[in-house]
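Re-run with default settings, no changes from the original entry. Doing this only to confirm the output is reproducible before filing.
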Amino acid sequence: MAKYTFSCNTCNLKKNINMNIKEYRRLKEEKHFESMPCDQCSSINSFSQLFGNLSSTITKDREQLVRDILDDARAVSEKIRSGDQKAIRNIYGED
């Protein structure tokens, strides 16, 4: 999940929202962030998205990790079957 930071345009309250990118795009298209209620000043107003020098980490779910590992294992197996000497030395070491 990505973390998005918004600031209330009235009282400058900072609000962090965790959501996936697909959900963020849908809400942005629906102009949801222009009419969010503020927890501090209780007004329904526009929030501005803040971009800072901090970065968000997007993590993979278990299924995606398993798919990536299987893809990597298949690629290594194919290199070994094709006789790639460098790949074989990397896996089994030098004789």
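Strands lie at 2-8, 14-19, 36-37, 44-45, 47-50. The mean pLDDT is 85.
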